[in-house]
């Protein structure tokens, strides 16, 4: 039968079948998400890919059946076929697929445990000994780090600080000067007093 000259009833039925096929495609994506855990970014790209498949399939269907003319009953047929599959056969297929996937995951996990059991028995005591031996040097390193931190700190300044605290100015002007400067200042004062008396 030539799809191009088909009456609208046949086109509608073919659209229902197309919608059911798109439902199967959507179930494939859902089952893959359960089998392979995916994040939000991967889910977004999967949804985008599904919508691109739907758009391409609908466009090709219009080209084959209505000569590229958009008909509303075609979209209604696709939605009806998708809903019929999704809520009847699709629900059963999805439940069966999830049960099978969980069973396979449990079997694989059990096989991995059985395979790794002898290695655990052999290497577990060695790992425990290594952990115990590494505790003492780790504690020593912590103590050394604390001591170094305390040695870097001083009362007034820090060695890694560029800014030094300003010293308080001396109470007397001659306090910070050497002794010979003090003597000179006393001699100058004596000369000044003698000159004032002579006048």
UniProtKB/TrEMBL annotation:
Keywords: Membrane, Transmembrane, Transmembrane helix. The chain crosses the membrane at residues 12-29, 41-62, 82-104. Residues 179-199 have a biased composition (Basic residues). Pfam families: Spore_YabQ. Residues 159-199 are annotated as: Disordered. It comes from the Bacteria. InterPro entries: YabQ. This is Putative spore cortex biosynthesis protein YabQ.
